[in-house]
Specification:
about 110 residues; mainly alpha; elongated
Amino acid sequence: MNLEEDFIKYKDITLIIIEIVKAEEYEKLDDIFQQRQLILDDMNKINSSKEEFKKIYLQYEIENFEKKLAAQMRGKKENLLKKMKENEKRQVGMAGYNNISAKAIFLSKEI
């Protein structure tokens, strides 16, 4: 394999990851990230200059795809955190409501 082929594969896998994150199919991410890591390991084994590496990196606009992926993941993370906080508030409210109901029954039995 050469460096250019590895960058093409890396770019394709990054696009797949972006689509998986959009579709919220997170269970598929482990396998895809492992594939991407294998490509990165293969790139490290290739003897090439930094200039050649940077040239191909810029040619295939890998940085743009990395930024898109990071933004997509950040947005999903923020959305999940928001949902978790809303769920936590809901649970606290339900627990408080249940405690009030239990106290009211206890008080009516006491009288």
